[in-house]
Design a protein that fits this description.
The chain folds into 2 domains: 114-296, 3-Layer(aba) Sandwich (Rossmann fold); 403-768, Aldolase class I (TIM Barrel, Alpha-Beta Barrel), CATH 3.20.20.70. Strand 10 (520-525), helix 16 (530-534) and strand 11 form a beta-alpha-beta unit. It contains 24 helices and 17 strands. The relative contact order is 0.06.
């Protein structure tokens, strides 16, 4: 029986399958679906933990994703793994040299004990009005401030060494320095433009640490402008003061102590009131600093270089506090995700995107007719030619027209002053010499950034301006008719009026025009433009002003604008050494008592040994009493006597002899306090008319044969300075004779005849012995 039931079991199972197979299959499918859905939910939960939503901005950091086995084994107790910290890579860019000294933290700087506050007032002026404002501010601070405020210091930016104050700050124990800048705005290039350029270069110089002026207690700027000429800031009102405030904020690390002030000089009462209010505010801030209160916290954005509305057009400020990044638009493209893109994003590395769509402004005229520089120069007697050239007749031209003597060029080289035109194709200079008699009104710059006038109108304008001024002399009492008639034919041109003539881009073309009309050329440069000096073409005589024999003294006397001024100077010396075979070269030494006379002969001898000039002019400085010279500490005490110049020349001659250089005194002009050293090997010779005479003696030949120079030039062949040496130097110009032409009449300051004293000649001869 049991066996029969067992045998019937398959039939019963088959019967049950046929009877309930639909329910079994449906249940199995449902169970499989539930299992599959559960696995899908677990996978989705893991992705939500590990992958952020598409629209959520997160920092890109590598995550350690667990294996699939760990996920399935511990799905109910899953926790996202902690990301491993990554080492932050340095940003690309030039390496910043900061040294090994650790900078003090902000807290330690604030904790520094400050007992005194030293206000330093910087100003710039062309006409003197800003100086008056600065002096009034200094007086108000000195009278109304507490004892903790030291007496203000005044500095003219034209006479200030920028590196001493705007690359580093003065050091004083327990004393904080506060800078006050009073700046006008000009629509021409002045020393103020170079000051702003210095601030900008300092900020962008990767060799200089960020915010080098952060040690200041604070700063504030007051701008002076004319709303009658520039109604708004957008049209130019106080723009240079705004720029100075911006760069000072970056260099000081956002230490603007008081808001930028403005004064309208067209309304004097209003500008005076604004300046007084600004002075009161600055005084209160410095009082708080002396009491240890500091500048305060300020609202967000306080101390920023520029307003937030201007940020779009400015580069990101490196010294500013980090700001929150701007939110990106929610309308993102699918191609933003590399998983959907499945390929690298194409990037063009060959073309850089321009940072600004605006075109750079066109160059401006160097001296516009509406500028104060134009008015100042014309008031001094200059005739402005075009936009950057000038011409003027000197006092020696007027003297020669009346038969009262010519300048030293006649004694040395045979140039009569009434036949000479003094001009320049560039009113701009690269130096700010302390003894310059141009009153500091000419533009300055290190590169040519103005409009360039063609050489043809420059040459014609120079001649027209010169002849016009000569014609104005025809009614002056004492002018000789024959000399006035001779003066209407220009024979010589001294390109030494003002500025840097070699700076003019078409200087060679201008020299060619002079030579084609048989006008000799005397070109003066300051040894600061070696590239232009190297490319200089033929010139009758090439002057180089040598005002110092070492780097430090050159900085003090010439105050060059180039940072590599000494390297440029030495390179020019080397170029002159090569050009001595093709050009007649002259060193011009200007002696300033107390600066470059004492123990300087050896240094000058080294420079002469390098350049080997044909001549060395040694001249005592002429005191002109300008604000520039006064600001540098010059007075009549710095003007050497002729005996002192003579002693220096003899010492220089001896120093050259020790180096095997044979130079001697070839001529003198005592009235100009000037003595000429010449190379004996080239200019001390037997006269051409006495070559056949074996008993003939050698004589000095410092004069120039000008017709011979033009013949050599027109021949197209190479020639040397020795090929156009003139006749012997006249006896009255030789050493010991004073250098005054006996055919002329010597007069005193009041025009009365004056005879040279015998004692003066004897003193000179005694010094020679």
């Amino acid at each position: 029986m049991d066996i029969d039931k067992i045998l019937q079991l398959p039939e019963e199972l088959l019967f049950l399958w046929h009877a309930h197979r639909a329910e079994v299959l449906l249940s199995a499918g449902l169970l499989f679906a539930l299992l599959r859905l559960a696995v899908h939910w677990r996978t989705r939960k893991s992705k939500e933990v590990l992958t952020p939503p598409v629209l959520t901005p997160v920092d890109e950091k590598p995550l350690a994703v667990p294996s699939a086995k760990e996920t399935l084994a511990d799905a109910d107790h899953y926790e996202a793994p902690t990301p491993k910290p990554t080492v932050q890579r340095p940003k690309p860019g030039p390496k910043r040299v900061t040294g090994t000294k650790k900078s003090k933290s902000a807290a330690s700087q604030e904790a520094q004990v400050i007992e005194k506050v030293q206000p330093i007032i910087f100003y710039y002026t062309l006409g003197g009005s800003t100086k008056v404002y600065a002096e009034s501010v200094a007086q108000d601070l000195a009278t109304s401030s507490p004892s903790s405020l030291l007496e203000p210091q005044l500095h003219d930016l034209a006479d200030t060494e920028y590196d001493d104050f705007f690359l580093s700050i003065p050091k004083a124990e327990k004393t904080a320095h506060f800078y006050l800048l009073l700046l006008p705005t000009y629509n021409i290039d002045t020393n103020l433009s170079n000051f702003l350029e210095h601030l900008q270069e300092t900020h962008h110089d990767f060799r200089i640490d960020t915010a080098p002026l952060s040690g200041l207690a604070g700063y504030s700027v007051f701008g002076l402008g004319d709303k009658h000429e520039w109604p708004s800031e957008a049209e130019g009102f106080c723009t240079q003061a705004v720029d100075a405030d911006k760069w000072m904020a970056r260099l000081t690390g956002r230490k603007r102590g008081f808001p930028l002030g403005f004064g309208d000089v067209s309304k004097k009462d209003e500008s005076d009131n604004m300046l007084r209010e600004w002075t009161k505010g600055v005084s209160s801030i410095m009082k708080d600093l002396a009491e240890g209160k500091g500048l305060g916290e300020g609202v967000p954005g306080s101390g920023e270089p520029i307003e937030s509305a201007d940020e779009a057009s400015e580069d990101e400020d490196e010294t500013a506090a980090p700001r929150k990044p701007k939110r990106k638009s929610a309308n993102r493209s699918k191609t933003d995700d590399l998983e959907d893109l499945k390929a690298p994003i194409p990037v063009d590395f060959t073309t850089s995107k321009p940072t600004s769509t605006t075109q750079p402004p066109p160059p401006k005229p160097m001296v516009p007719e509406t500028s104060p520089t134009y008015s100042a120069l014309t008031k001094q007697g200059y005739t402005i030619v075009g936009s950057h050239s000038g011409v003027k007749i000197c006092r020696w031209t007027k003297s020669a027209l009346r038969g009262r003597g010519s300048c030293y060029k006649f004694s040395f080289y045979g140039i009569q002053s009434h036949l000479c035109m003094e001009a320049t194709p560039s009113l701009s200079c690269s130096n700010k010499c302390v003894f310059c008699w141009r009153h500091g009104t000419n533009p300055v710059g290190t590169t040519w950034r103005w409009t360039v006038d063609p050489p043809e109108p420059v040459f014609q304008g120079m001649k027209e301006g010169h002849y016009k001024k000569i014609k104005m002399m025809r009614g002056v009492p004492g002018v000789r008719a024959e000399r006035f008639q001779e003066a209407m034919r220009i024979r010589h041109c001294a390109l030494s009026l003002v500025g840097e003539p070699i700076f003019y881009p078409y200087i060679n073309e201008l020299l060619g025009m002079l030579h084609r009309e048989r006008i000799s050329s005397f070109l003066v440069c300051n040894a600061q433009h070696p590239d232009q000096l190297e490319a200089l073409g033929p010139v009758t005589q090439l002057y180089v002003s040598i005002d110092a024999s070492n780097k430090e003294m050159l900085r003090q006397i010439d105050r060059p604008l180039h940072r590599d001024y000494w390297e440029r100077f030495l390179r020019c010396m080397e170029i002159l050494g090569r050009k001595r075979f093709t050009h007649r070269t002259v060193f011009r030494l200007t002696l300033v008592k107390g600066f470059n006379i004492e123990e300087e002969a050896e240094g000058y001898a080294n420079l002469v040994e390098t350049a080997r000039p044909g001549f060395v002019e040694v001249k005592g400085v002429t005191y002109c009493g300008t604000s520039t010279s006064k600001g540098a500490g010059l007075s009549m005490q710095n003007v050497p006597f002729y005996q002192e110049v003579t002693a220096f020349v003899l010492a220089l001659e001896k120093a050259l002899a020790k180096r095997g250089l044979d130079y001697g005194i070839g001529a003198e002009h005592a009235h100009s306090c000037c003595i000429l050293l010449a190379d004996r090997g080239r200019f001390f010779r037997v006269p051409a008319a006495e070559k056949d005479n074996p008993a003939a003696k050698r004589k000095w030949h410092t004069l120039i044969d000008y017709p011979r120079f033009f013949d050599c030039l027109e021949s197209g062949k190479d020639f040397a300075p020795e090929d156009y040496v003139g006749p012997p130097t006249p006896e009255w110009a030789l050493w010991g004779h004073g250098g005054f032409d006996p055919r002329d009449e010597r007069v005193d300051r009041k025009g009365r005849p004056k005879e040279p004293k015998v004692q003066e000649v004897q003193e000179v001869q005694e010094v020679q012995k």
